[in-house]
Amino acid sequence: MDLGLKNKTAFIAASSQGLGKAVAIELAQEAANVIINGRHKENLERTKSEIEAKTNKKVIALSGDLSVPEQREQIIASALQAHNGIDILVTNSGGPPAGKFEGFKQEDWDKAYHQLLTSTVGLVNGFLPGMKQRKWGRIIAITSMAVKQPINNLVLSNSVRASVVGLIKTLSNELAQYNITVNNVMPGYTETERLKELIETTPSFASAKSEIPMGRFGKPEEFAAAVAFLASERASFITGVSLAVDGGWMKGLL
User: What is the phi/psi pair of residue 240, to 5°?
Assistant: First the structure.
């Protein structure tokens, strides 16, 4: 299936590893122009080289912390200078630390807020004008299955990621008239470093695999395929949805 992504330009946040990296690879394989981002320059450059070798597409790597306003603005400016516009924005962030409500201080909540919500708002503000001008765009948030079915011991993620979904749903209504779709993708338990850390540090995650009807963890490339479809021309009438890629873990009807 031709997804119609050739020469579209995609910015993928937090893409030096994990799900963001998998999405960047998938979009580059679909012949999109890819801009990756991460806080650690060495990891980012390594990922850039890996994607270029695998896909034969030139990749732009912009290092910096998207939760810091000055760094975020510089990254946005550099991305726009490189390609004169972003067609596909994939927002993403590492997860806040695990723990229960009483284990966190106000500064922990503030950090999670800036990490998850402020960074998303800032990226949308930076890239939306060009999408509206071209009357074409895809905004896709990577959140978590916890926004629909909260996970024990993840109070920061459960709470703040839900606000991202509220933003995404509202934007989908506001931007539909400009041919811009806005969707949320909710990864389930997927084989990433984040999941390994949670299994090692939080006893309740040790039995996570047994809770998944498919009997296994997801693969990053399986998640990335769903994001690529939502970014495509084929998904032009899909907006405002929260798509679970979780092997059936969520038990709710909707």
Answer: 75, 15
